[in-house]
Amino acid sequence: QIGRGKDSNKWVKVVLDGILPFRKTPANVLIRAEQYSPLGLVNAVGNTVRAAKGDISANAAIESWAKGLTGTGVFFLGMLLYNCGLLNAGPDDDEQKAAFDRMNGVQPYSLDICGNTYTIDWASPAAVPLLMGGEFMKNVSENGLSLQALSDALASIADPMIEMSMLQGVNDTLENVRY
Description:
3 strands; single chain; mainly alpha
């Protein structure tokens, strides 16, 4: 509702519409991506407790478990595809290496089939857990399975969601303001 109400400042409306013109679509993508991911299992546990109290129906709790387990399976599929070399995770942290990869036709967050890359951002939000799994395996393969690697992987696990949604405009704005 920020920038949409009658009381909102005119300049706030202009700036927000320029940064994020469509607010509901990215919010819906984020909600679906969370539900169909390993994070959805946390939601499922909460829904199970709420169903036991009678706040929601058992069907809603079962549905949240189905979504979370499906997303977790897709997350593990992303890990497998990355290990097989069929899934490209996000761009390299080294800007020169990332630029070299772009010049050679490597697209971040894409499938790599027979040397050709195919983006799957059109499949969002379903592709988000797949790419989250690839991003996780990328961090683990670069840093090994340690507590630091796990924290780095968890910190960057939302990158596919941001890169593939309309939130990229917000992310770019925050990056520009930071510098």
